[in-house]
Amino acid sequence: MTISTTTPGRAAVRPPQGWLRFAAPQQFYPLAGQLAPWFAALAALLAAAGLYIGFFVAPTDFQQGEVYRVIFIHVPAAWMSMFIYLIMAFWSAVGLVMNTRLSFIVSQALAPTGAMFCFVALWTGALWGKPTWGAYWVWDARLTSQLLLLFLYFGFIALTRAIEDPRRADRAGAVLALVGAVNVPIIYFSVQWWNTLHQGASVSIAKAPSMATIMLVGMLLMALAAWMYSIAVALWRVRALILERERHTEWVGAVLEAEAKAAGGVR
Amino acid sequence: MLSTFLAILRRDLLLSWRGRADLLVTLAFFVVVVCLFPFGVGAEPNQLRAIAPGVLWVAALLASLLALHRLFAQDHADGTLEQLLLSSEPAVLWVLAKIAAFWLTTGLPLVIAAPALALLFDLEQSALPVLTLSLALGTPILALLGAVGAALTLGVRGGGMLLALLVLPLYVPVLIFGAGAVDAHLGGTGAKAQLLLLGGGLAGALALAPWACASALRIAME
């Protein structure tokens, strides 16, 4: 196994130009540091606007009353949890094919955020279900597949944390993410099938009366906020992972020294 | 190509035969788990009849999960796996042979034992062939998917629990269609759709899983 550092043996290869050079962790680290606060600020703004519209502007639903307002958090979280898994699988595939370390780091940085959104979606769903369906949990197709998605996230996180060699952890996690991505639609459809067999037609969100435009606006704002939040958090986590992985290299030493100096002024 | 497959298959079957106590443990686990359920839910015959397909399927699933760690562990410990990976034979081929041997030694006994255990739950006689068929189609899928998990967790600390966490969510569709086949037969709608889906799942898993498993093994041995 080779230990790749900033690397004499590759001197003959021309370093990639353009945006591809950010595939190197050393180049990506400062870029992520610059971008993350912007995404975080956007997330805060969008969330503030979305929550304001959701909780103060949007009208009360005539069927469900005030309870329905949980969708402004619930639906974006559910969308995000599914979408992040696809992004994870995408970066895993890129990492396996192109052999870029940064891709694996990105997919691992995304996993905790995805799991968090999954959990938020389930939790808010339960809070919404109690007054609406009369039960915190119904074995509905959507709820069940969301729960299984949470387990898939747990599996991915547990596997990548359990393997000590980072190179093996990266690749093993990537294979698992891809196997999971192939299985997600199968799980979804099988659960739907099972549900219809056992329960007949159950309560479904899809059958809710069509939404007022202002509600949709609030929900889309919240969805965008969730996107921005995920990107910001993932970038910060990528930075931490890069530092951890590359802690033996010179450039990390230099970065840490510079940061210590900057912090020294405060101290 | 076929000779490699057969050689590995023969070797693994022979090894299992030499250590047949291990195989009996899997089977015994299956039987014991199935017998635990009446103690938990009560021995009311109608209730037992209703839960029988699910109980048998969940127990078969857990039993094959329990055996999974044996699939590569021994070859990993004594270096055989490394030699196999270094050999010029395509990895997918001998991985498939190992999985086949694994299923023949752990999955097949469950398939055979299940109808007898179903009698303890007073399952209808006509449902027994459906149960056997669903297990015969489903347990190979469990072995194929589980092999990927076993390869990913090879030599990892806390591998057993981790393996369960990785593999069980992926087993859910098999469980749904497997137990569903028997339920559908009992319900009068016929089990054809579920059995066909299981067959399709088996074909898909046969095509994809050995490949994923081989690359996971390569990652583990690097």
User: Helicity of chain A, in percent?
Assistant: over 70%
Number of strands of chain B: 0
Question: Main β-sheet of chain A: number of strands, strand sense, barrel status?
Answer: none
Average pLDDT level of chain A: 83
* Chains forming the largest contact: A-B, 28 and 29 residues
Radius of gyration of chain A: 22 Å
Shape call of chain B: elongated
What percent strand of chain B? Answer: under 5%
How many helices of chain B in DSSP terms? Answer: 9
C-alpha end-to-end distance of chain B: 25 Å
Radius of gyration of chain B, taken over Cα atoms and rounded to an integer in Å: 18 Å
Q: So what's the overall shape of chain A?
A: globular
CA-to-CA gap between the ends of chain A?
42 Å
User: What profile does the largest beta sheet of chain B have?
Assistant: none
What is the N-to-C succession of helices and strands of chain A? HHHHHHH
Low-confidence stretches of chain A: 1-11, 199-204
Strand percentage of chain A lies at under 5%
Based on secondary structure, the structural category of chain B is mainly alpha
Membrane topology (chain A): Multi-pass membrane protein
Subcellular location (chain A): Cell inner membrane; Membrane
GO biological process, one term (chain A): cytochrome complex assembly
GO cellular component, one term (chain A): plasma membrane
Layout of secondary structure:
The complex is a heterodimer of chains A (267) and B (222).
Chain A: H1 25-57, H2 71-98, H3 101-133, H4 141-162, H5 166-199, H6 213-245, H7 250-266
Helix pairs in contact in A: 1-6, 2-3, 2-5, 2-6, 3-4, 3-5, 3-6, 4-5
Chain B: H1 2-18, H2 20-41, H3 45-68, H4 70-78, H5 80-86, H6 91-120, H7 127-152, H8 159-187, H9 192-221
Protein name (chain A): Heme exporter protein C
GO cellular component, one term (chain A): plasma membrane
Domain Cytochrome c assembly protein (chain A): 38-198
